[in-house]
Amino acid sequence: MITKRFGLLATLLFLTPLLTEASTPRGYKTVPTGYNLFEIIYGYTEGDKETDSPLPGSMLSIDRHTTILRYVRYFDWNGRFSGFAFLLPVVDQELTFSNPSPFVPTTVIGDQSGIGDPTFVIASNIFGQPAMDLQEYIAHYKSGKPVHESSMNWSLWITAPTGKYEPTSLVNAGENRWTIKPEINFTHIADKVWFEANAAVSFFTDNTEYLGTGRLERDPLLTLEGHVSVDVPIKLTSTVTMPAWASLSLYGYIGGETSINGVSGDDAANDWALSTNLYLRVHKQYAFRLFYTKTIKHEPTSFDTDTAGFRLTYIF
Questions:
Q1: Per-residue pLDDT of the chain in tens (316 residues, 90 and over written 9)
Q2: Rounded-to-integer distance, Cα 240 and Cα 255, Å
Q3: What pTM, to 2 d.p., does this model score?
Q4: What is the three-state SS of the chain?
Q5: Which CATH superfamily is domain 2-315 in?
Q6: CB–CB of 49/57 below 8 Å?
Q7: Could you state, in order of their start, the residue ranges of all structural domains in the chain?
Q8: I need a surface site. Which of 59, 106, 131, 149 has the fewest CB within 10 A?
Q9: Residue 209 contacts by C-beta under 8 Å, 6 or more apart in sequence?
């Protein structure tokens, strides 16, 4: 029973970081101070993994709809470009058990809908572009000079355990624990091409109500990200061009082994995923982005997942 529980646990732990806990290409892009951003992010994730069931070919499958409301405020912090963000996820998910035998019916072993754990993010520049108001920003980007700039940035992500959590459920919208993730980013812009590298470590408090009475502990999780994006403006007419860019990203998750009541789950991650984005600035205040993420390597205790979705952005 312990082994089965750990398998289910890993299902949920490594399922959604690319939506709720990871950075995105051009996530540290400088914009005029005093501006705000509101986003609706939607992603659909499906995945499966083999189980330790005595029935050959048995699989666990997950279907998860995630909608995130994201607000960002950009400001000048002692001359540095900075921002504050708030993310609130809403999830609808189902976990099922299946076997190819016609005598073993597909069984729903967990499902839940509800508000997940909110995340607060504070970020700032270390070196590179300073904070700029609108006039300075316009002058900077319309100077006509090729852009060759490097910058380093940091952020601190704090996730609070206020989402929906039922101690006896295998599937929950919230995790019933605090998560603190400091992150460092390096960005280099070479004219129309952006190169970015991120490194972060997530620290977790204990969930003392796992499956009702258990204590779930998790070791720190290292997250590595690499992003390459290129401007691909779309010419609509002879005088109108839509700003756009496309990207390819690599995400890695290492560590994060869990234990229940002191018993190790032997489920440390070494999982990697590729992701692609297409960003369209359809109006000076509106943007639209499509994204797709695919697991390319994962441990037996975690899922092989596909995630597809979009982001709607309003800038004001």
A1: 444 444 444 445 444 555 666 789 999 999 999 999 999 999 999 999 888 788 888 999 999 999 999 999 999 999 999 999 999 999 999 999 999 888 888 999 889 999 999 999 999 999 998 899 999 888 887 777 656 789 999 999 999 999 999 998 888 999 999 999 999 999 999 989 999 999 999 999 999 999 888 999 999 999 999 999 999 999 999 999 999 999 999 999 999 999 999 999 889 999 999 999 999 999 999 999 999 999 999 998 889 999 999 999 999 9
A2: 48
A3: 0.92
A4: CHHHHHHHHHHHHCCCHHHHCCCCCCCCCCCCCCCEEEEEEEEEEEEEEECCCCCCCCEEEEEEEEEEEEEEEEEEECCEEEEEEEEEEEEEEEEEEECCCCCCCCEEEEEEEEECCCEEEEEEEEECCECCCHHHHHHHHCCCCCCEEEEEEEEEEEECCCCCCCCCCCCCCCCCCCEEEEEEEEEEEECCEEEEEEEEEEEECCEEEECCCEEEEECCEEEEEEEEEEECCEECCCCCEECEEEEEEEEEEEECCEEECCEECCCCEEEEEEEEEEEEEEECCEEEEEEEEEEEECCCCCCEEEEEEEEEEEEC
A5: monomeric porin ompg (2.40.160.40)
A6: no
A7: 2-315
A8: 106
A9: 165, 167, 176
The single-letter code of the amino acid at 179 is: T
The token pair that represents 78 in the structure block: 């002692």
